[in-house]
Amino acid sequence: MTQRRAAFLRTTAFRQTLLSAALFALSSFVILGFVYAASAGMVVRRADAVVNDEVQVLNDRFQSGGIDNIRLYILQRTVGGGDYLYLLIHPSGRTLGNLSFLPDVQPDEEGRVQFTYRRPPAGGVDDDSEKEDRIVRGQIVELPSGYRLFVGLDVDDETRLISRMLNTILAASALALALGVAAGIFVSRRFVRRLDKINNVARRVRAGDLQPRAPRNYTGDELDELSENFNNMLDRVEALMHRMRHTGDSIAHDLRTPLTRMRNRLDEALREDGDLDAREQALERAVADTDELLGIFNAILSLSRLEAGESRASIVRLDPAEIAADMAELYEPVCEDDGLSFASEIQPGLAMLGDRGLLSQALANILDNAVKYTPAGGAVTLRLRETGEGMIEFSVTDTGPGIPDVDRERVVQRFVRLDNSRSQPGSGLGLSLVQAIADVHNGRFELNEGPGVVADGHGPGLRASLCFPKAPREAG
User: Residue 18: is its pLDDT beyond 50?
Assistant: First the structure.
């Protein structure tokens, strides 16, 4: 338990929360301290101003009637009590006023002093044990003929209020710090518990178990977003691992047939009773099987490089109309040789960011499939246009058998070949390569139904489209 508590205290969440609580308490102390200083200063300034006004009145009295006029004024002011304190000191030491003596305190440059005196409580009981200590602030004035005059104001109530305010400030700051620490511990524990659950999932994944997922509370906070991204990453990793296992099985299955054919043909060429022409034909077919194997391996290598992001460095600004025109020029004679009609619709003046070689390869793979699966008498159309969404779209439309809805997501996976394509040469990697090229260019690859049934029983056809973002306008 002690180790767990010590580990919790070392967590970043607790330290950050403790720092926030300390900063909050410090800021509260500074703000309340400013209020305290302003209030205390206001009390002092008010007392000094009131005393200064009273001293001015006494000076005027002295100028008009001398020291006797001051004595009369002091007697009048002290009969009814009040907060003012007066003390007139005769050169001989005799005193007059409601203050018994003047303590030995050093006045400031303006003659102001502050000290404690003892005032009897209300009721007039003149007993030292019943008197209370109070604070007075006043001014000492030197008069002619050796007289000294003290005029003061009782500021004990205001000073006590300010003192209580200071104690309140200290208590509030301490309470704010304590509450901040308590709230920090509470919040940090919840944060650490949620983080521990994510770490536990990560440990299980590191141990090889891809099934667990990080818990979510669907509040949209940072940890919930982290859990969502973590789970999406695990889904992606699990899909890649599944694809890797499936790819291994598919490679073994797809390579077994050409390898078996190659072995049989090589074995046939080695027979002593075979004639020279038969041996040469067997070797030629073995070479063709080797080329097929090399094509499969090259396609796998290209896919791996694309998924690793090796081709992103060669992405530049280009004109997609040039790529579409080259593909149209290349495949128009191919379609004529296979008895297909070919048309192209290319919109000029577009610009995008891409790798010319990869885009050409993707369009070539789509056009190859269209030519391969469209029966004689059918049609293939290549289009380049800007969509209503502001995207650049390459599309190839044919009048072949098409692809059922349920299989359109599956055919872009590696080594997936539908039943109606088993009789055609191929490895099942062409559309996977197209999908990878679209991903590299932040585009999308979609397969949709074509133009529908046409003459001679063709149809429903297929429309394969590649959509890419437009390039930003060049500066200047």
Answer: yes
Cα angle value 211/214/216 (rounded, 5°): 135
The two three-digit tokens of residue 391, written as one number: 């995207």
Q: Compute the distance between CA of residue 196 and CA of residue 146 in angstroms, rounded to an integer.
A: 84
pLDDT value at residue 455 = 47
**Contact 353/347 with Cβ under 8 angstroms?**
no
pLDDT at 390 over 70: yes
Between the two ends of the chain, the Cα-to-Cα distance in Å is 67
The Cα-based distances of 263 to 214, 252, 253 in angstroms read 51, 16, 16
Domain borders along the chain are 12-163, 222-307, 314-469
pLDDT tens by residue, 206-222: 888 888 888 888 888 87
pTM: 0.47
Torsion of CA 401, 407, 410, 414, to 10 degrees: -30
- Is the separation of the CB atoms in 320 and 394 below 8 Å? yes
Q: Are 61 and 141 in contact (CB under 8 A)?
A: no
Topology of domain 314-469, CATH: Heat Shock Protein 90 (3.30.565)
Nearest to 350 by CA among 196, 230, 467: 467
Label residue 423 by pLDDT band (50, 70, 90).
Answer: very low
Question: Confidence class of residue 422 from pLDDT cuts 50, 70 and 90?
Answer: very low
Q: How far is CA 57 from CA 44, 51, 232, 352, in A?
A: 20, 10, 85, 91
Q: Which residue pairs from 250-258 have beta carbons closer than 8 angstroms and sit at least 24 positions apart in sequence?
A: 250/414, 250/415, 250/428, 251/296, 251/300, 251/415, 253/415, 254/296, 254/415, 254/427, 254/428, 255/293, 255/296, 258/289, 258/292, 258/293
Give pLDDT, residue 405. 77
The pLDDT, as a whole number, for residue 251 is 62
CATH class of the domain whose range is 222-307: mainly alpha
Name the helix (H) or strand (E) containing 468. Answer: strand 462-469
Q: Are 14 and 184 in contact (CB under 8 A)?
A: yes
Provide DSSP, 262-303. HHHHHHHHT-TTS-HHHHHHHHHHHHHHHHHHHHHHHHHHHH
Nearest residue to 464 via CA among 437, 425, 427: 437
> What percentage of the chain reaches a pLDDT higher than 90?
13
Report the CATH fold assignment for 12-163. Answer: Beta-Lactamase (3.30.450)
- Integer-rounded Cα radius of gyration of the chain: 49
Query: Hey, is 79 helix, strand or coil?
Result: helix
* 254-268, 326-340, 429-443, 462-476: range with lowest mean pLDDT: 254-268
Other Cβ atoms less than 10 A from the Cβ of 342: the count is: 19
Measuring CA to CA, how many Å separate 417 from each of 410, 432, 473? Answer: 9, 11, 41
How sure is the predictor about 428, in pLDDT bands with cuts at 50, 70 and 90? low
